[in-house]
Design a protein that fits this description.
The protein is an alpha+beta fold. The protein is 26% helix and 22% strand. The termini are far apart. The mean pLDDT is 95.
């Protein structure tokens, strides 16, 4: 499936960085996300400030329920990262709707590829059209 799934009733998605609960995002990622365990608050702040950010919010309380970050030039490339859904709202399709919204937000820019890395959520991303790299032998990484 590559249609954008609807967001659960009672939630909204925004790219307004001023709405982000930065403390909550940092706590989520630095204490519960395998890829960001121990990430310093200063690093998280710099990452937010240098990225396109997506938040999912409860429309009644305004409380942030999920987060995703995109590193992009808004023209040719995007890297989707730091996708996190609060455990209390998992199972409602919020993460899938969030990633679909990211994809649709980037579509008008003509970005040719959106990359991501995941250890355990391949099925979630596959529903939205993500697939393994066709030519992984062409990709390299520099680990610092």
């Amino acid at each position: 499936m590559t249609d954008t799934p609807p967001l659960a009733e009672g939630y909204e998605i925004s790219t307004d960085a001023a709405l982000l609960d930065r403390e909550r995002v940092h706590r989520w990622l630095s204490t519960d996300a395998y890829w960001a365990l121990g990430r310093a608050r200063e690093k998280q702040e710099a990452a937010i400030d240098g990225s396109l950010n997506f938040g999912v919010y409860d429309t009644a309380s305004g409380e942030q329920a999920a987060y995703a970050r995109v590193v992009t030039d808004h023209a040719t490339f995007a890297w989707l990262c730091d996708v996190y859904v609060d455990p209390s709202v998992r199972g409602k399709g919020i993460g899938t709707a969030l990633v679909g919204a990211v994809r649709e937000h980037l579509r008008p820019y003509g970005v040719r590829r959106i990359l991501l890395a995941t250890h355990d959520a391949h099925g979630v991303y596959a529903k939205l059209g993500f697939a393994a790299l066709e030519r992984p032998d062409r990709w390299m990484a520099l680990y610092l």
